[in-house]
Specification:
Number of helices of chain A: 3
Oligomer: homotetramer
Strand order of the largest sheet of chain A: 1-2-4-5-6-3
Structural class of chain A: alpha+beta
Distance between the termini of chain A: 20 Å
CATH architecture of chain A: Roll
CATH topology of chain A: Thiol Ester Dehydrase, Chain A
Shape of chain A: globular
Chain lengths: 145, 145, 145, 145
């Protein structure tokens, strides 16, 4: 059973670390593809108003987590980042950021995801990330993997 | 002219975002190899006392930046992360973290770095990262690259 | 001046190593997006008819190179792979492979690219790669970068 | 039961694709750390005698596989590369290459590995790679993971 946008946002809001708080899922476009919004107020800014690299990494990781929550995996909230790779492409223009996250592969042990982060209402591509989330063993009901 | 440990720490302390504040260089072991300390108080914790993935990424990125500051590059403080890749290996035991960062290649345009993050006083390897820092064009006096 | 599909294919055919020989650009879809074909005969096969991981890495790297050749960069043929990251998603079904390669960022010093590799006439996503090509210094006529 | 150097080399020699053939394990230095040799004759050369990027990726992947074979995992020969990341650091001087491969983490589902590739009898670091090998489910006798 896939979580709805409202269910994911409700769960994300309960997470403690500040890094995760601001992210909100805007839309599910079927097939494991989500759009997320990260309000600039939730992000660490560099002098000059630019978003820091670590904040972009946090946004990428959190968007991946939101996508895993959406996929209908049992105990998905126990999934853990196994690896993450990011290219910083351009210094973001000031303002809110959007993330487009897509599950490229959903296996029994892990999910591989691609994230694109945009500034300027989706007009400026500022980062590309990919990552692997390891799923909890219990996510497979029959333990047959 | 390479910056000393004290000079790097003095500069790092002036940086604004909380993510960078705690890191302190402990020792330079020659040839672009540094050991850094990240006090647990400076890190975002997950429920249960474990350090979050984004905090480990921030630590890896900041340790790389400290190493670039050390290398004696002109205007090194203008260097920017171009890409970062991290493997999360184990959930860190509670307590301070140490990072061992090493420059693998120091070219005219960029520096490639390797980072190992440890918990338990260096006994538990919790993450391995590598990354590329792009150097400011002005770092080469003769513009001949 | 961008190279045409015919010009890229003519140049690629002159390259020595077997790894590069089979790749052929099929179509340019504007804005630095190319589709390439890698006939199975050009690929190293594993027992059972599956394409090997190193062959997929070679295909990803070669598709990126074809895209760099297309971008209208001076002396683009001198560009060199700086880094490459690949996720192997599924074991490819036997048959020719297709690669969709896109330039995510085209700067003065480097190009960042994304590659998706498909089997089954584009129906099966078998790998996702990203990479950075370093451009030759001479590609900028005024040396002002 | 860990495989010996002779056992690994005997098995590697039976593998079909040319990319794997040349690699030979030279020495095990305990704790999942191996040194391998890749004779230049086994490598694809670029005009000028330099080793190609895809050949370095093949060497990195094959060295990781040799290390997995060494770790004493059941049915280790069924392990598959899940992801690979490589930084090309310097153009290798002509001659044989050496690889130092180390298992950073050996879990029930996967092994994370680091590889350094050297030319010039170990004096010139030419590439750094890391990767994940997925282990076959059968490698755990009790299926309790």
């Amino acid at each position: 059973m896939h979580r709805t946008v409202a269910q994911i946002n409700e769960f994300m809001a309960t997470l403690a670390p500040e890094g995760d708080q601001g992210l909100r899922v805007l839309e599910v476009q079927g097939d494991g593809l989500l759009w997320c919004l990260m309000p600039v107020a939730a992000l660490h800014l560099r002098p000059g108003g630019s978003v820091s690299g670590p904040s972009l990494m946090t946004l990428a990781d959190t968007a991946m987590y939101a996508c895993v929550l959406h996929l209908g995996i049992e105990r998905a909230e126990m999934a853990l980042t196994q690896s993450l790779h990011i290219h910083f492409l351009q210094r973001p223009q000031p303002g809110d950021l959007h993330a487009r996250v897509q599950a490229l592969r959903h296996g029994r042990r892990s999910v591989v995801l691609d994230v694109r982060i945009y500034a300027e209402q989706g007009q400026q591509l500022v980062a590309q990330a990919s990552g692997v989330y390891a799923l909890p063993p219990e996510s497979s009901p029959r333990q047959d993997f």
